[in-house]
Structure formats: structure tokens, C-alpha cells
Amino acid sequence: MALLPILRYPDPRLKKIAQPVVEIDERVRRLAADMAETMYEAPGIGLAATQVDVHLQLVVIDVSEDKSDLHVLLNPRIERTEGSHLGEEGCLSVPGIYEKVERAEKLTVHYLDLEGKKVSLLAEGLLAVCIQHEIDHLNGKVFVDHLSQLKQGRIRNKLAKQARVTA
Ligand code: NI
Question: Is the separation of the CB atoms in 67 and 42 below 8 Å?
């Protein structure tokens, strides 16, 4: 397994639209394992393939406290949503930035697991937020895209300053 470099907002590659996984081969299994390792190491609770510059519909999620509940979602589709919830989000591609985003409170997501089995998962709370956040990435969207233009500008300035300090 290997740690993968994570793209930083506003990298234009974060806007690419991910393609469906058509065959679950060794490359896909290795990508999922490397992404899980990268997510745990960061540490984070979710990572989309887009963020490691692979434009396939694959996300890894684990919202448990003890890294015991890894979900690997291939070709995820949200089928039903219910309610709404305003909660603070962050992103491994937007380090140090936390902002409130409105999301559905509950949802059903359909996806394939790594064995190619169809899974239907009813999610709520943090898991539901995380699923929506990661599927956004597959569609070329970062959580800050949900914010006002003014806030987006401030965030870009702050990240540019950080980059100058650490460069
Ligand atoms: Ni993210």
C-alpha cells in the first residue's frame, strides 16, 4: 500500500468529472486500499478518487472513532433524500477551512462494493453528510462551491497565503 498525494483546492483537476468503474480489477482494488490508507493517515473521514487525481467513481469513507467501519463505494448514486441539516464541513483538499453547508439529513445510496455486489445503504447524520460531500467530489465539486462568492474569494486568499508561507 502507498500514501497518495492529495490535490489542494483550487487545483483545476478537482473539477474533473469521474467516470464509472466498469471493471473491478487489481488496479481498482489497489486504489481503494491506497485511498483508505491515505484517508486514515491524513487523518480524514472520507476521500474521493478525484482528490488523488484518479477520475473514477470511487470513494472511501469511515466515520467511526476507531477506524472500524470502512465503506468503499463504487459508482455511488443517491436515490432518496429526506430533511435538511446545516453542519460544519472540512475537506482534506481544503486544509484548515471549516464552513457550514446545507445537506440532506437522511439518504439512501446505491453502489457496488469491491466484490461487485450491489449495496443499498440508508445513511443519516455524519455518514450522510460525508456521502454527499464525497459524491460532490466525483462530480467536480468541492464543499466551498456551496458557499457565497465572497466566502470563496476569502478562502482562496487564505490558502494562497498559507502556500506562500509553507513554500
Ligand atoms: Ni472533501
Answer: no
pLDDT digits (tens, 9 = 90+) for 126-166: 999 999 999 999 999 999 999 999 999 999 999 999 888 87
CB distance 75 to 57 below 8 Å: yes
- Spatial separation of the C-alpha atoms in residues 81 and 101, rounded to whole Å: 16
Q: Say how many Å lie between the CA of residue 131 and the centre of ligand 1.
A: 10
Dihedral pair phi/psi, residue 77, rounded to 5°: -135, 125
Between the CA of residue 25 and those of 28, 114, 116, what are the distances in Å?
A: 5, 9, 10
- Would residue 134 show up in a list of annotated catalytic residues for this protein? yes
Report pLDDT digits (tens) over 14-50: 999 999 999 999 999 999 999 999 999 999 999 999 9
d(CA 24, CA 108): 23
In the numeric block, which cell numbers belong to residue 121?
Answer: 445503504
CA–centroid distance, residue 137 to ligand 1 (Å) = 7
pLDDT tens, 48-69? Answer: 999 999 999 999 999 999 999 9
- Cα(131)–Cα(135) distance, rounded to whole angstroms? 6
Alpha carbons 81 and 86: distance in angstroms, whole number = 15
If you measure from the C-alpha of residue 115 to the centroid of ligand 1, how many angstroms do you get, rounded to a whole number? 25
